[in-house]
Design goal:
Length: about 400
């Protein structure tokens, strides 16, 4: 790939990749910050990710808060744009879902919604076709049976308009009885949830997110998309690694409506960055996203400000689907009511993370909280690859964080 070749030349042009590192406020204490960061530098040197940001809060303290790489906001043959910094804005992609799900849970907590309410009570236009059995909880835990977008749906036009019209999902028929089987829904369920939120609240989900969470917690740059003035601060994305395997390419196009390469291209556009897409375009700094996860880890409170009750979050992470092979991707997955859940043997957050909760985003973005180890983590990056040997180093970085927090004397 032309970009990857150019980027790797730029990396090797400099003897010291650490020249591309920027450090935010850190208080490591006994946490082995440098050992963890050394593995992140090795990942950067694979050339898979133009920019990487990692923020680790241990017992609420920022023990690691760094970025490495470039934003690609002014790409040319000789420069790749500004050096990434802790103030850089990263897209969370599908990790946006854990943020959006909490808006729903907040409304359930106050009694405006019920998890067992039928979807069609709020969206009567969708009555029929088996959809009347879909409940709010099924949309949250990917068991609604509608994982794929309709073939007739014009996703590119929807992004250009800044919002996907839920009525374009009227042709969907559940592939199995709702509530019986998990199949990851990249877009569909979240379009419906956003419409339900808007009808119940009388305001868009972006306003509810800001009102319920972002303003009280002083998360000034976390939200759906960014303002036009902030677009230069956004880290752009690039296809890297080996060609996408045919099977994965088909799965991806079926679930979001466009090929992976086109999705990455669209993600760098003004229309994507200014849209309200609850499943894919929450954007923010590594620290703000990690503080949001810390709020969940704390049971709904951050720095003395409470925005949710502990039992609401417990419900979201304990009402979990049985572990099964997900019907979309074929991986052994367990979903809470919004979050993806960790596990002992197979986990997106590292081995031995049963009880951890968070979400993966295209294709190696990870945010999670681990109650057992008192960790909140945002591991954000801009290379989009489905197949590359360097992904082993990415997985090792996640495992190194777990090892660091499990070290003698830390817990």
């Amino acid at each position: 790939m032309a970009f990857l070749d150019r980027f790797q030349r730029l990396v090797t042009r400099h003897d010291d990749a650490l020249g591309f590192v920027r450090v935010g406020d850190e208080d490591p204490g006994r946490f082995p910050t440098e050992r963890v960061w050394a593995d992140v530098v090795k990942l950067y040197e694979t050339g898979l990710h133009p920019a990487i940001g990692l923020c680790v809060l241990y017992r609420g303290r920022p023990v690691l808060h760094r970025t490495i790489g470039h934003l690609l906001n002014r790409p040319s043959d000789d420069e790749v744009g500004s050096v990434a910094s802790p103030d850089t804005l990263f897209s969370m992609f599908s990790a946006s879902k854990i943020v959006s799900s909490m808006v729903v849970h907040s409304m359930v907590e106050e009694g405006a919604l019920g998890l067992d309410d039928r979807m069609v009570e709020y969206l009567p236009e969708l009555e029929g076709g088996g959809r009347e059995a879909i409940r709010v909880r099924h949309l949250l835990n990917h068991t609604a049976g509608i994982p794929d977008v309709p073939k007739e749906m014009d996703v590119e036009r929807a992004i250009a308009e800044g919002k996907i019209d839920f009525r374009e999902l009227a042709a969907l028929r559940p592939t199995h009885p709702p509530g019986t089987f998990a199949a990851y829904a990249a877009l569909t369920g979240w379009v419906l949830l956003a419409e339900i939120v808007e009808r119940v609240a009388g305001r868009g989900i972006e306003i509810e997110l800001r009102r319920r969470f972002l303003e009280p917690l002083a998360l000034a740059h976390l939200g759906y998309g960014v303002s036009e003035a902030d677009e230069p601060r956004v880290a752009r994305h690039a296809m890297t690694g080996l060609p996408v395997p045919s099977m994965m390419s088909k799965i991806f196009e079926r679930s979001i409506g466009v090929p992976l390469a086109r999705a990455v291209e669209l993600s760098n556009s003004h229309r994507f960055m200014s849209a309200v897409l609850p499943s894919v375009n929450v954007t923010g700094t590594i620290l703000e996203m990690t503080r949001f996860m810390q709020m969940l880890l704390n049971g709904g409170e951050l720095a003395g400000t409470r925005v949710m009750l502990p039992h609401t979050i417990r419900r979201a992470i304990t009402e979990v689907t049985p572990r099964q092979f997900d019907g979309t991707f074929g991986f052994p997955m367990r979903y809470g009511l919004g979050p993806m859940m960790g596990g002992t043997r197979f986990s997106l957050f590292g081995l031995g993370t049963k009880g951890a909760f968070g979400h993966l985003g295209l294709s190696a973005v990870v945010v999670y909280a681990d109650p057992r180890r008192h960790l909140a983590v945002s591991f954000l990056n801009t290379g989009k690859t489905m197949a590359a040997p360097g992904m082993l180093q990415w997985a090792w970085c996640l495992q190194r964080i777990i090892q660091a927090a499990s070290a003698e004397g830390l817990r």
